[in-house]
Amino acid sequence: MQFNNHLALCKGCGLCIAICPKKCLQYHQQNKGVYGQNAIDIDLNKCIQCRQCESICPDAAITISLKDQ
Ligand code: SF4
Ligand code: SF4
C-alpha cells in the first residue's frame, strides 16, 4: 500500500485525522501544506486501508494505492 498526501492540495483541515478509525493520522512536524500549515503524516503500521481519509478529503489531497500491499 502507498499513502500519498499531496502537499500542494492539503489545507490542514483535519477531517482525515478526525475520521480515521485507527487514529493513525496526525499533523506532520515538518511538511507544510498549501497555506503553510502542517500537512498530514501517517503511521502505516496502524492503517487498515479503509480509505475513509481519501474519501473525506475535500481537496483530493490523499490518494491511497493498494497495489503494493
Ligand atoms: S482532509 Fe485533506 S485537506 Fe484536510 S487535512 Fe486531511 S489531507 Fe489535508
Ligand atoms: S486508510 Fe483508513 S486507517 Fe488508513 S489512514 Fe486512512 S482512514 Fe486511517
- Mean of all residue-level pLDDT scores: 93
Within the largest sheet, what's the order of strands?
Answer: 1-4
Let me know the largest β-sheet: 2 strands, antiparallel
Q: What structural class do you assign from the helix and strand content?
A: alpha+beta
Count of separate DSSP helical elements: 2
Shape assignment: globular
Number of strands: 4
The level of helicity is: 10-25%
Can you write the helix and strand succession as a string? EHEEHE
- What ranges have pLDDT less than 50 throughout 5 or more consecutive residues? none
Determine the N-to-C terminus distance: 4 Å
Count of distinct structural domains? 1
CATH architecture: 2-Layer Sandwich
User: What top-tier CATH class fits best?
Assistant: Alpha Beta
Bound molecules: iron/sulfur cluster
| Oligomeric state | single chain
Name the beta content range. 25-35%
Q: Assign the CATH topology.
A: Alpha-Beta Plaits
Radius of gyration: 11 Å
Overview of this protein structure:
Keywords: Iron, Iron-sulfur, Metal-binding. GO terms for molecular function: iron-sulfur cluster binding; metal ion binding. Residues 1-30, 38-67 form the 4Fe-4S ferredoxin-type domain. This is Ferredoxin. The structure is a single chain. With 69 residues, the protein is α+β, with helices and mostly antiparallel strands. The protein has one domain: Alpha-Beta Plaits (2-Layer Sandwich), CATH 3.30.70. 14% of the residues lie in helices and 30% in strands. The chain contains 2 helices and 4 strands; from the N terminus they run E-H-E-E-H-E. It has helices at residues 15-19, 52-56, and strands at residues 2-5, 25-32, 38-42, 62-65. It starts with a strand and ends with a strand. The structure holds iron/sulfur cluster (2 copies). One iron/sulfur cluster is lined by residues 5, 10-16, 40, 57, 59, 61-62.
